[in-house]
Amino acid sequence: MTMDPFGPVTDWVFDLDNTLYPAQTNLFAQIDDRIVDYVIRLTGLSAEEARTIQKDYYQRYGTTLRGLMMEYDIEPDDFLEFVHDIDHGALKPDPRLGNAIRRLPGRKFIMTNGTRQHALAVSNKLGITDYFTDMFGIEDAELVPKPFAETYDIFLKRNTIDPTRAAMFEDLARNLKIPHDLGMQTVLVVPSGTREVFREAWELEGRNAPYVGFVTENLAGFLEGLLEKVA
């Protein structure tokens, strides 16, 4: 038997934040707060006004950074360094997830709208770094975030990936549309406890979209289920 429809997959692409670790860990909430602090420092607005801008830019531009670059012409390196200066202590090793990723046939990648350094810090805490061929950060995408098509083009060309033989795992449905259109298998990783972690309404939309092939609340369990189908 094969992992049909994952049988042809030779390249496995994982988003980072709220995908490789549970959203209720609230690690990304630290980044979220740091972004608000940056906007306050930049604009002099109140915390409430700054958060409104942050959420608006995040939704409209893909990342708050891109919005601030477009609207305020900020220095991206300063922003990225500031917002990723967080405590990763909430993350613990996840040997179950690591074992499942290790056993997947082919190459594995992290593709994040965060920085490569942030991806490395997270994967080190989870104990899964050694299982990845490469980590693709926002700086590798010339600061253009998912879900823009050019970001996926850069990533696929950089790693010589045939999208019809690849799978994408994401916590935001909108980031799966381009991968689906390119022929990738798409998996939406949803938070298992929305009462424990606040998510914007639009972030939780799309699980029934035609470009979402599969939905799971448990990434390790989903991968183990695929591996059970291997002959």
Short key terms for the protein model shown above:
Rossmann fold, 6-stranded parallel beta sheet, globular, DNA polymerase, domain 1, 6 strands, single chain, 2 domains, 231 residues, alpha/beta, 11% strand
Shape: globular
Write the element-wise H/E pattern from the N-terminal end onward: EHHHHHEHEHEHEEH
Task: Please report the number of helical segments.
Answer: 9
Distance between termini? Answer: 5 Å
> How does CATH name the architecture of the largest domain?
3-Layer(aba) Sandwich
Number of domains: 2
Radius of gyration: 17 Å
CATH class of the largest domain: Alpha Beta
**The CATH homologous superfamily of the largest domain:** HAD superfamily/HAD-like
Beta fraction of the residues?
5-15%
How many E strands? 6
Taking the sheet with the most strands, its summary is: 6 strands, parallel
Question: What is the SS-derived class?
Answer: alpha/beta
Low-confidence stretches: 194-199
Taking strands numbered 1, 2, ... along the chain, how are they ordered across the largest sheet? 3-2-1-4-5-6
What does this entry look like structurally?
By secondary structure, this protein is an alpha/beta fold. It has helices at 27-43, 47-61, 64-72, 76-83, 95-103, 116-126, 149-158, 177-182, 219-227; strands at 11-14, 107-111, 134-136, 166-170, 185-189, 214-216. The protein has two domains: 11-21 and 92-227, Rossmann fold (3-Layer(aba) Sandwich); 28-83, DNA polymerase, domain 1, CATH 1.10.150. The chain has nine helices and six strands. A six-stranded parallel sheet has the order 3-2-1-4-5-6, with helices on one face. Strand 2, helix 6 and strand 3 (134-136) form a beta-alpha-beta unit. Helix 2 (47-61) crosses helix 3. Residues 194-199 have low confidence and may be disordered.
